[in-house]
């Protein structure tokens, strides 16, 4: 492509999006030559489509002493282009084993995505050589088709709590040489980030040392590598379609937490080459990053071949995988409530309360006490209500102290509303399918020294309301 045709190329890409009036095009603007060229093309497109909104966003990481000058440069250039610009300042949290590249990218995207809504489009200035770098890094990490598919021209981008928008890369099939020639022809002023010359960063090493030698030997390697990435993307799309059909049959709702869990017996029945693919699909469907191939094989080994009563708990990145009752649970890595139990006073000693139950207003005080006393780690918290139907706890009498306790011993004997005879708590945990890591979070309501209810699980049979009297309902499990 001739350099002078680049503006037309950008306009055609944007036209292909069929954007509705009022939609916003947001450019991740660094002031480097790539984003400068895209900003120039965007300014020309804005004259054709004044019904759209436009915004350039420069993210100030504070990593370079020149960052303030770069922010001024972006403001100056934006004024020349006639486009609004926003400077977002972010602060990176760095430490041992923390990649500066990865943290900077994460912070940059978080800052930019805050400006986007589902009908908007994020433009990034990735080009053909960036694609080659991404493919080489995927090879270095041993990634499969999904990683080797690298970047797409158009990809959905998740917006936290707001759905998703599109990320578009109009320059992805354009060479660096063409971009630089266009910038020179238009006399575009751009900045040079000094960190781009530091080959301790993987991308810089490839850009400075490896790709020039590859291009010297095979001038079209960036183009042919992009073709391979496209083929991998097509294969990955087929795999994802098959996963979307197979995976739902392996899923269930957990009895207590109501979260989606994976049925391991059904997973084990799948062809061995599909087990890892489906496990990855499940982890990804729960919003977590994917494990490496080696990690995935180790996870499968521990999940499939552990004894039924084995406590399997595996932490991968920001998620923890746990096996219980033939199901796989995936949760965020957070400090377990159980870890805080040591030294904690029994709630029955710490938060006694006496209620003179005489009217509905005081009933509401009782509900508030029980709600506030429950830990927030058991999710979802079911409705706590005063009702006249269904299984429910009788309200306390005037002389009864209402209290809440945790961590009852396994030998504690209970008689839930769904059992004709009493049973030890350790047996009821299994019967109600309460995972071991949540048992310390289950609250037990007492009237004086008598157990009357296990939150979310049962009402003690002797304290169930009879007839149509008003009672307290707080049940999840339905054994």
TrEMBL record:
Span of domain Lysidine-tRNA(Ile) synthetase C-terminal: 402-474
Reactions that this protein is recorded to catalyse: cytidine(34) in tRNA(Ile2) + L-lysine + ATP = lysidine(34) in tRNA(Ile2) + AMP + diphosphate + H(+)
Keyword set includes tRNA processing: yes
Subcellular location: Cytoplasm
Binding site for ATP: 30-35
Main localization (coarse): cytoplasm
Superkingdom of source: Bacteria
InterPro entries for the chain: Lysidine-tRNA-synth_C, Rossmann-like_a/b/a_fold, TilS/TtcA_N, tRNA_Ile_lys_synt, tRNA_Ile_lys_synt_N, tRNA_Ile_lys_synt_subst-bd
EC assignment: 6.3.4.19
Keywords: ATP-binding, Cytoplasm, Ligase, Nucleotide-binding, tRNA processing
GO molecular function, one term: tRNA(Ile)-lysidine synthase activity
Enzyme class: ligase
Cell wall biogenesis/degradation found in the keyword field: no
The protein's role, per its UniProt record: Ligates lysine onto the cytidine present at position 34 of the AUA codon-specific tRNA(Ile) that contains the anticodon CAU, in an ATP-dependent manner. Cytidine is converted to lysidine, thus changing the amino acid specificity of the tRNA from methionine to isoleucine.
UniProt record similarity statement: Belongs to the tRNA(Ile)-lysidine synthase family.
Domain comment quoted from the record: The N-terminal region contains the highly conserved SGGXDS motif, predicted to be a P-loop motif involved in ATP binding.
Name by which UniProt lists this protein: tRNA(Ile)-lysidine synthase
Organism (species): Shewanella cutis
Phylogenetic placement of the source organism: Bacteria, Pseudomonadati, Pseudomonadota, Gammaproteobacteria, Alteromonadales
